Batch of 2 targets.
Target 1
Amino acid sequence: MDTISKEKRSKVMSAIHSRDTLPEICVRKMLWRAGYRFRVCDRRIVGHPDIVIPKCRALIEVRGCFWHRHGWEWDGRKLVETSHCPTATMPKSNCSFWREKFRRNVRRDAQHERDWAELGWNLIVVWECGLAKSRDRERTFRFILRNLAKWERK
């Protein structure tokens, strides 16, 4: 059971943004410092990916572990845990709503990934937990920069 009122919970949840989150801003600042120029949530591309780097034909999705179920995959019928991320918890109340919400999010992410691959885009998925600690953040940034350099059009 939820420990706060329905009205308070609604207010808290409505304050959560879908773009310009701290993890997204962190990645964008790193890219800018590294000399990469990009578009944010480009509406011309299906799914409006978080970061588009045209010269590398690359998309970067910065995903929240809770909302996008880090460590879970859609197997065609249900969500299946593939690894453990402590941030991808399941709320204790209104479980059926949350299971359906997460199922839709993961299915939509998988569909966008297929669409982008068909259109020839290179994709990097950055998970929120990969930016939490400076050691993890540095490893994530090295991974991003290594792949962008590989994909960069000369």
Note: The longest helix spans residues 95-118.
Target 2
Amino acid sequence: MRKLFIAGLFIAGLTLYSCHSSNADKYNENEVTSNAPTPPPTTMEGNPLPKETPAATASAESKGGIDVNAKSDSKGVGKFTDANIKVGSAIDAAMAAKGKAVFQASCTACHTSTTQKLVGPGLKGITKIRTPQWIMNMISDPVKMTHNDPIAEALLQDMNGVQMTNQNVGDEGAREILEFLRQNDAQ
């Protein structure tokens, strides 16, 4: 019985450790936060900053020249190809609703459907810069992707080496999440 109790404590500790976010270190209990959208950065004169700032360029160069926010036609590395992914121009609302439920159950611990970064990047706009195949390959086998796909490797570095975990949503769940992300980006 004692060994079972110790094993249970070990598993609980391991679970708590694996859920710890580096963002927790940045928490300030005296800080007031707001859900209001942050205005875009501007110059002292009030003009918007150019999209390609020196800091963004330096960040992309530090990742081997890969800008993780740039559009890419890469399919990624995995089982999803043009042959087995059919995505029409119209969004399947029923599939997107299922995808939203899967996303909320499996992804929201690390990702938002906005641009807000948590443990992983915010996913608003992802379908505009990544192919359906890349997205589904990343959902289905993130470790394979981060070890074999240059964009996924750069994202891993951008996220301070925090590896996306495989949530085992299956092929159908991955497709449903993709449809939810497509619907989210159409709004």
Note: The radius of gyration is 19 Å.
